[in-house]
Amino acid sequence: MNLVPLFLYAVALLAYAWHFAQRDPMVGRSATTLLLAAALSHTFVIGMQTMEAGHVPMTGATSAISTFVWMLALSYLYIEMTTDERAMGVFILPLLVALQSIPAFNPGVEARAEVLRGPLFGIHVSSLLFAYASFALACVVGITYVLLFKEIKAKHLGFFYARLPSLQVLDRMNQGAIVIGWIFLTVGIIVGAIWAAQARGGYSLDPRVQAMSLEDPKIFVALVCWLVYSFELFAARRIGWGGRRAAYLSAVGFLIVLFNLVPISYFFSKSHNF
After folding, report:
1. Helix, strand, or coil here: 171?
2. Alpha-carbon dihedral sign for residues 176, 181, 184, 185
3. Helices marked H in 203-274 — which ranges?
4. Contacts with 141 (C-beta within 8 Å, 6 or more apart), sequence order
């Protein structure tokens, strides 16, 4: 079923690329329509998987990636529809297509262990995934900021200058996405710590539960991610790391997110993949 959203995301990517190159309003509206169709089909897939498994599919690496893609698509659609700005689509859609290809070619919903039942785990995971979606938006905005900054610095106002919002608007969008992401990341980490403490008390014989500590790569990298975005949010601009440096820092932070979301989830972490 995940192949249908993947196909629609890919077609939407082509439409956004065409719109970015030609600035044709009709093509832009078509791109938005295609992305909306992709998000709706993805919603249907997640709904069907939820009914089949009896829980929202986000307890394993593959299903969590699918849910992350869905959240990112909806978040970007909200921004696009409230600002009527489609220039970011050509940068967001490659990420959606690349990540959605994982559940599309590795389908299935992982079985949920007994320890993962309960509201705290759901709040923990959904908060982290929404935070990661916000950081993805911040990263894309940061990349476009750097592209536009370099064009302005070179005094060659052309391709990106005609297609992207101003540096001031991009900087505010970047800052706003980071604030939202940091809040949800903080909530996810705090709730996760409470849930882990309860799980260790109630499932003390499960070695996977006992492995949940700072030695778990997934937990450690999540805390590193929190430190990076805390620095960017509370200290970077005070020491003159605004604008372009803040944009680079957003990209570094999201690379850490991707590292935690894909390779660590599949190859390094043991306690979280059950």
Report:
1. helix
2. negative
3. 207-210, 217-231, 244-261, 263
4. 88, 170, 173, 174, 177, 247, 250
Place of tokens 């003390």: 204
Return d(Cα 231, Cα 234) in angstroms, integer.
5
How much helix, strand and coil, in percent to the nearest 5, is found in the chain?
A: 80, 0, 20
Q: What angle do CA 125, 128, 133 make, to 5 degrees?
A: 125
Closest C-alpha to 168, from 115, 223, 106, 246: 246
Number of H helices, E strands in the chain: 10, 0
3-class DSSP assignment, residue 59: coil
Count of alpha carbons within 13 angstroms of residue 228, beta-carbon side: 21
Write down the residue that tokens 């990420």 correspond to: 95
pLDDT digits (tens, 9 = 90+) for 75-109: 999 988 888 889 899 999 999 999 999 999 887 66
Find out whether 95 and 12 touch, Cβ atoms under 8 Å: no
Reading the block at residue 160, the tokens are: 């990106």
Mean pLDDT score, 182-191: 96
Contact by Cβ (8 Å): 38, 5: yes
The mean pLDDT value for 47-61 works out to: 79
Q: How far apart are the first and last CA of the chain?
A: 23
